[in-house]
Amino acid sequence: MTHTTKKFLASAMLGTLLAFSAQAATLNIHNGGDPASLDPQKLSGDWENRIAGDIFEGLVAEDAKLNPIPGQAQSWTVSDDGKVYTFKLRDGIKWSDGQPVTAEDFVFAFQRLMDPKNAADYAYLQFTIKNAEKINKGEITDFNQLGVKAIDDKTLEITLEAPTPYFIGALTHYTAYPLPKHVVEAKGADWVKIGTIVTNGPYKPVEWVPGSHVTTVKNDQYYGVKDLKIDGAKFFVLEDQEAALKRYRAGEFDILTDFPTDQYEWMKKNLPGQAHVAPFSGLYYYVINSTKPPFSDKRVRQALSMAINREVIGPQILGTGELPAYSWVPPGTANYGEPAYVSWKDLPYSEKVVEAKKLLTEAGFGPDRPLTAQLKYNTNDNHKRIAVAIAAMWKPLGVNIELVNAETKVHYDQLKSGEVEIGRAGWLADYNDPDNFLNLLVTGVQMNYGRWSNPEYDKLIKEGNAQTDLAKRAEIFKKAEQLALDDSAALPIYYYVSKNVVSPKIEGFVDNVQDIHRTRWLSMKE
Amino acid sequence: MIKYALRRLLSTIPVLWIAVTACFFVLRLAPGGPFDGERPLPPVIMKNLAAHYNLDKPLIQQYMIYVGDLLKGDLGPSFASEDFTVGQQIMIGLPYTFTIGTAAFLLAILVGVTVGCLGALYQNKTPDYILGALILIGVVLPNFLIAPILQLVFGIRLGWLPVGGWGDGSFKFLVMPIVVLALPHAGRISRITRGSMIEVMNQNFIRTAKAKGIGPRLTVMRHALKPAMMPVVSYLGPAASYLLTGSLVVESVFGLPGIGRYFITAALNRDYGMVLGTVIFYMVLIVFLNLLVDIAYAWLDPKVRNR
């Protein structure tokens, strides 16, 4: 018997044993893709976050509504200048192997995150920490200069480059999870293998069959283990949403983390109350190349934006009721309040079209000189449906659109290199703060695919980020947002929604703007 | 025979090398890189990732590194999976794919040959028409259509079988994937068998057997089946390589952890290492299976053996 076959049989036997032992309250979650790793510094997707957030815990955790709550830290203080955070760790926190979690584990983790050799995709999310970016760029090689210091085993001090209002929220992200220094140093890259990995979250991973599932069980060493109602979870890999829905209907899954939009009406009738569609902190938009005539003309951009009938896209074209987007920052974003809106938001659609025609005529386009443009999107049924619909909405203006689709990698390569006139893009919030969206339109930022540039806007964003008073900061940001909207920097189309299907036997599932639902807050009715 | 087999295997090494080399360079011509996506990474991160995977080195140097690792038996890292190398992923997925593939292969032969023989024996009679129609369904309906129908009927409506997943690897979990995989091949095998069997049954030595008073069942089993299997055997090589390399559709729909989805997914993700790894694996498997077919041919046909 080969080594592989033995491992295969062992894994099958272990799976069976686990299935029997954990049948009581095991949550079966359809999780979409295969995780790239169990190492929280090697992740980049929401499906990976679901697992990582169950098995690790940072200084700050999230409650079911996604409010930051004390995690491994029991309390923290912030200096008057808003730059220095001092965290007191909880008493008795341990890794799953019984070793204590110390401030040094956090220092080790942040230093490793910024180590260029580690090549962590998401290291930039913590660039607000002093010297983090310089270390990641290789400009500073002494990692001890990173603004993360262990004062003693129980006290951690983090110094920032500048006051950052969303920093506590950013600490809930998996890039801020601690790592078991004693295991990583002893085992190297193998620290993350099943059987070796130790974690500090409510659950610990005990099985991973790539392409099939990751199984977790309760972590007995976790300080809140007594409060856990679910014994463990199985995160299933399955990208085919139709197949996932069938397995849910057969009772094989308790939660679906996505579903085919064309099944929504059927689900409302046949699975009442089980399909959860909720506002999600994300924006679906079209970029428009501001450096390329005629799109460098603000009137052309505004005409195209006004002629999009956003009201029909969510309910009729997608069928899941996505809300029309007239702002750049989605409503409900933290530290912001109500966002700024385009001035023509409340005009009836017929008047918007009349106004759009007028703008195009002023810009020199009309029946004798139609505007011709390419609209690029990445291959996907929904993107196609929206592109076809919007091209049809622009037709009465005398705009001829050629639709061009490409696979995701190619599409984003074209967006990045500016080979686009109008192109589909989307942004899902990394952290719950307006800066995350407003940053997309700053001059020179890579995600600014439309190359829109406005020095006044850039100045306001800089000013807002230097402001520690949240109310004042929001005011400055709103000015910037209004500037971008008045100039039609890009064309917001709709705000994303999260789409989950939750079995009636699951309790404690709370819809929230980042679609994060930790197993620790859930329970299961028998 | 052993000498012949060794010679055949050795002759594939240059072919393999040319394929890997071509694949290596063609992959890099494709627009978009492994780290392009919905969420563009800052230049500093891109630079670190490129350095981490040697992508910042000249292409020819990357190629030399890859070939050097390959000669040591290392298929290199996968960009999509940090915790498993390409080789590890293939070795993990292989038992699942082989289990389903082998079972589907045997089922396809069993059903295909049986139905084909019956069709030939009852040529142009009612059983032939009924079986032909059933088999035609298996051939013409694509598996991405059959799989959801089976899931709906046997998984959801009747509740007899699990809708998907490997579960504990027990038979009930594997029935639907095996049937879906086997069906089109069973159809093709039955049509080849039927045609070949009709041809053989009209030959002189069969007429002689019948004249000697041997019954139809014995005539088929003892005299007709072996020569009639020649065209079937030549189809089995490609069929086996198709089944044993896994099916993207079947593995995706049933959520199985096999290697069928690796190639397509890796190509779309620009996961160069995984694409090359699967190409090498497929080629080695195809060469090996073709060799087995040739050996089976030699066993079935003395003329080939003596050539």
UniProtKB/TrEMBL annotation, chain A:
Which molecular-function annotations from GO does this UniProt entry contain? peptide transmembrane transporter activity
- Cite the entry's keywords alphabetically: Signal, Transport
Signal peptide extent? 1-24
Q: Where is the Solute-binding protein family domain?
A: 68-447
Q: Which InterPro entries match?
A: Peptide/Ni-bd (IPR030678), SBP_5 (IPR039424), SBP_5_CS (IPR023765), SBP_5_dom (IPR000914)
Is Signal found in the keyword set? yes
Subcellular location, principal: periplasm
Q: Name one Pfam family in it.
A: SBP_bac_5
Q: Name one GO cellular component term.
A: ATP-binding cassette (ABC) transporter complex
Q: Name one GO biological process term.
A: peptide transport
Subcellular localization(s) per the UniProt record: Periplasm
Answer yes or no on keyword Signal. yes
UniProt family annotation: Belongs to the bacterial solute-binding protein 5 family.
- Protein name per UniProt: Oligopeptide ABC transporter substrate-binding protein OppA
According to its UniProt entry, this protein's organism is Rhizobium etli 8C-3
From TrEMBL, chain B:
Q: Where is the signal peptide?
A: none
Coiled-coil regions listed: none
Task: Give the membrane topology, semicolon-separated if more than one.
Answer: Multi-pass membrane protein
Transmembrane segment boundaries: 12-30, 98-122, 129-150, 170-187, 232-254, 274-300
User: Which UniProt keywords are listed?
Assistant: Cell membrane, Membrane, Transmembrane, Transmembrane helix, Transport
According to UniProt, the name of this protein is: Oligopeptide transport system permease protein
- Organism this protein belongs to: Rhizobium azibense
Tell me which Gene Ontology terms the entry assigns under biological process: transmembrane transport
